[in-house]
Amino acid sequence: MTWRVLVGIALLWLLAGCASHRATDRDALVTLTQADAVRGSWQGNEAPVEGWMPVSLLDDWSKRWPGHDGVVWYRLHMNVRDANQPIGLLLDYVCLADAVYVNGSLVHQDPSLTEPLSRSWVAPQYFLLDKPLLQSGDNIVLIRVSGLAAYQPGLGAVRYGDVQVAYSEYRKGWLARYQLRFFDFAISAVLGGVFLMMWLFRRKDATYGWYALNVLIGAVFEWNYIASDVWPFSGTDGFEAFNVAVYVAYVCSFVVFLLRYCEQRWPRLERVLFALSLLAFACALVAPGWVGPSRGPWIAVASLIYYIALPTFMIHAWRSRKADQRVLALCLIIPMVASVHDILLFYQWVHDRIYLLALTAPFTLVGMGFVLAYRFSAAMRRVDGFNVELQTKVDAATTELSTSLEREHTLALATTRMSERLNLVRDLHDGFGGSLVSAIAALEHPTSEQDVKPTVETLKELRDDLRLVIDTTAQDHSRDLAELLGPFRYRWTRRLDAIDIEARWQLESLEGLHLSAAQQLDLLRFLQEALTNVMKHSGATCVDVTMRAAEANLHVTVKDNGRGFDPAVARAAASGAGLSSLSARAHRLSGAWTLDAESGTGVTLKLVVPLITAAS
Predict the structure, then answer these.
(1) Which residues, including other chains, have CB under 8 Å from residue 562's CB and lie 6 or more apart?
(2) Cα dist from 106 to 34, 92, 171, whole Å
(3) Closest-CA residue to 13 (of 334, 342, 337, 336)
(4) Do residues 143 and 155 touch, judged by C-beta distance below 8 A?
(5) How far apart are CA 32 and CA 160, in angstroms?
(6) Count of beta carbons in the 10 Å neighbourhood of residue 554
(7) Which of 61-70, 136-145, 323-332, 525-534 has the lowest mean pLDDT?
(8) Beta carbons of 475 and 514 less than 8 angstroms apart
(9) What pairs with residue 450 in β-bridges?
(10) Which residue from 291, 278, 281 is spatially nearest to 237, judged by alpha carbons?
């Protein structure tokens, strides 16, 4: 497919060239190749009377008058048989700016005939002449040309004759010298923007970035061939110096692009090329009056780099046997040949005024853009294949992970159930088991009838402890904390009343608050341990139990008015096991507890449990 596109482009170009030659054969214009010339001054609006000399067109006055920056007048004689018939006047080439007079009348003048000069050389000029401007017989055409010796100033061939033929030739020249250049400029800007966006989305592929940079710099360079003035520079030297620097940067970026396309990196060479580009721009900025007129050596160095890099790439492409590199090498053959002609023309080794690269550049840009787009498409196909493979692996990994998670979830549930059973066994052992062992020992070895009463009390404690376990494990867990505390409050109020301890309960905002079975048991165990300590050790006459939910926390307070104790002494004594039990219960509830106790002032026990943790 690629070869067909390239062959089609080449055939179209050849057909266009053949059609142009056939049209040229039918031309019926008179070509003036001889003229008289004389030097003039910048401010002079009239041709000098003396000093005229014959010259041949195409003329470059810098060879005849070296160093002459200013004005040269050209005088031509145009023989018209019938002044009643209009004629077309065609100026193929004028460098740099001009004014045209026919029989003493001004028919054209560029906007600026002094520095900064207009740039008339970029396109041919066409004028329609008729009566009363024309006269039968000899007509004098005066052309005032303003130019600078460093930029090949002069006048090209002048043709006149049939209006339609002259205009047709003008349109051909306009197409070859201006419109194709403008098309080259536009397509360079578009392709540069497209590949710049491609590079922005694929930063790792530097090939597209360097190609975008090279094409955009080429677009700036092409502006030299379509600009009608030297804006934004103050003079022709500044404009030409900048154009030279752009050409150097264009060649250097092109070399780096070829390296990246071949997947090569030569850091030292790239640094040298970058330094050369910076040097060119620095010189153009600091000394435009030197770089502009002395542009020949700069163009020679850049062209030498170009003619070394391009054949090297072609040899590498042929040896690599990669289709895209070979196609790109073929795309670069035509512009390389055209550039040889243009370089010879620039150094005036070829007597012509049409740069061929303008005719080949659009096709070359399209061909290179096609090759890069083909490469990008191939990369996208590889990415798509990788995505399919990756998706398959991800699906397999997801299935395996789901199986593993399901297995771990099953193990976690089994572990949780085992943990709950162990906690339940531990609670029964700590409460019910210990009390049962004590009761059995007392019944087996009674010392008197009075010893039976404490044993009965122990059995009652066992009954209450069993009820506590049953309330928190076997009952409906849809009950909130307020409902759960009802039986507990009733039993402990009776037990405390039996030993003359008044129990005052204050419950706030507990409706709708639900805890898990393990958390319910730990909370009631905590309260049970605290009230047991009040009943057995405090000697109090009153105990206040407060429980309220506020600010995402559950606050529990047990306060008595008993004799109190020293916490440090209690922890050191064997009886300190009760405090350890309280601490263990609080830790399992993820809560924090504090003990405020002094001898003779009673005891205040506080517990704070986070409701978020409790609810989870």
Answers:
(1) 534, 537, 538, 539, 540, 541, 602, 603
(2) 22, 19, 23
(3) 334
(4) yes
(5) 8
(6) 23
(7) 323-332
(8) no
(9) none
(10) 291
In 3D, which of 313, 174, 202, 197 has the Cα closest to residue 255?
313
Q: To the nearest 10°, the Cα dihedral for 7, 9, 12, 18?
A: -80
Give pLDDT, residue 462.
Answer: 64
User: For 108, which DSSP code?
Assistant: E
pLDDT interval class at 397 (50, 70, 90): confident
Residue 566 and residue 595 in contact, taking contact as beta carbons nearer than 8 Å: no
Question: What does the alpha-carbon distance between residue 176 and residue 181 come to, in Å, rounded to a whole number?
Answer: 8
CA angle, 373 as apex, 369 and 374 as ends, to 5°?
120
In sequence order, the 6+-apart residues with CB closer than 8 A to the CB of 468 are 431, 488, 521, 524, 525, 528
Q: Can you tell me the distance from the alpha carbon of 19 to that of 333, in angstroms, rounded to the nearest whole number?
A: 23
Contacts of 187 (CB under 8 A, 6+ apart): 362, 365, 366
Q: Is 116 helix (H, G, I), strand (E, B) or coil?
A: coil
Q: Which residues, including other chains, have CB under 8 Å from residue 151's CB and lie 6 or more apart?
A: 95, 96, 236, 240, 293
First-to-final CA distance of the chain: 67
Neighbours of 468 (CB within 10 A): 22
Which has the closest alpha carbon to 332: 356, 303, 368, 362?
368
Q: What are phi and psi of 276, to 5 degrees?
A: -65, -40
Q: Mind listing the pLDDT tens digit for each residue in 453-495?
A: 666 666 666 666 666 666 565 455 567 888 878 888 888 888 8
| DSSP, residue by residue, 161-219 | E-HHHHHHHHHHHHIIIIIHHHHHHHHHHHHHHHHHHHHHH-TT-HHHHHHHHHHHHHH
Q: Which two tokens stand for residue 187?
A: 């397509």
DSSP H or E segment with residue 80? strand 70-80
pTM of the model: 0.58
pLDDT of residue 200 exceeding 50, the answer is yes
Only one residue has tokens 């049939």, namely 162
Helix ranges (DSSP H) in 287-355: 288-291, 295-320, 323-331, 333-346
Q: Which strands sit side by side in the sheet containing 94-95, from one edge to the other?
A: 59-60, 154-155, 94-95
Quickly count: other Cβ atoms within 10 Å of residue 427's Cβ. Answer: 20
The CA distance from 421 to 555, in Å, is 28
3-state secondary structure of 226: coil
- In a 13 Å sphere around the CA of 21, the CA atoms on its Cβ side amount to 5
